[in-house]
């Protein structure tokens, strides 16, 4: 016997081209191929698992293939068949039969359920979780507290919040739910799903389903495993006015009872309010209202965290100081209103030219600061900095002078940069190094980017 290593789709293609197949069998193979390549693999039926099982059984029955006793049972997720003429053996790894459809449950109202006393006491104590020592917790820390608290008060094996949008930024990039490596449908088809992910009782949620569920907050959903008895509880969370939403997913080895469901819903609602409160506070504390970007307080706190991350991963990051050239002249010619307009426009241009992982903040006056997230080399940092400079230079600024006449003005920026750990290992050292380069750029002609060395 020969042992061939084939992908699932390669196997189906070879089977379709076999002249020994009957026309009806070939049509069935083509239908299975279409099911495998068109649309997300929401269920084994749509993936063609059940039709293939039936087709293989029919081919064995007519003597086209041989199969050991019990190899074609409904419970088997692996089919072993032999082709006696070609002396080839196939071991096909399949998924389970289609799981049950999700059950939509109405979320409990205030009068329907009474929470267990221990849960009520814990919730009443939780407002203190907005603050840790002398600082306000970040939204992601609130989410971590939600996951940890729910894991303690409900019989869930795992609890995880999957953000779809956070602070106005869409953060879902096709990352699968933990334990189920399902790819983004735009990046691959069902054949690229690892074999062990298609085991019995596994329930799949693709990117679009997460997006849809994050907007449905008046109901929760329960999937029940068809073979293992466990279940999954899914609840959409969010506040559209603050630009955050996501899906709370709880996995349990047992089915969910009324107390577990009520506790989950109430705890999720409570932490959703905490999360919205923290994001409102961040908006008041950490944003510059004129430009719409972060302020210096946020930069200083965030820079320390980025440096800690870079040290732990042994990676480099870059700091850029961006200063608008001749800004006082704009204020003199166009008044403070014109100067404010320049600041807001420059902030918008800089933000649109940055990568999604980078951070822009107003440092003060006409100066901005940029953190290029690790890992980043000096060459890449220089390219990004020059891209920022060019983006501002190419922007058309139409401003009214003090007499009311509208004119087109050109705005340029000078940029000084520094790289961790080459030019400094602390926020202060990097800021000093970048500021020295900024002063040199302003002195040597402006509208340029300079790094040490």
From TrEMBL:
SMART domains: GGDEF. InterPro entries: Diguanylate_Cyclase (IPR050469), GGDEF_dom (IPR000160), Nucleotide_cyclase (IPR029787), Rev_trsase/Diguanyl_cyclase (IPR043128). Gene3D superfamilies: 3.30.70.270. One of its GO terms (molecular function) is diguanylate cyclase activity. Pfam families: GGDEF (PF00990). Residues 170-196 are annotated as: Disordered. Residues 315-453 form the GGDEF domain. SUPFAM superfamilies: Nucleotide cyclase. This is GGDEF domain-containing protein. It comes from Eiseniibacteriota bacterium.
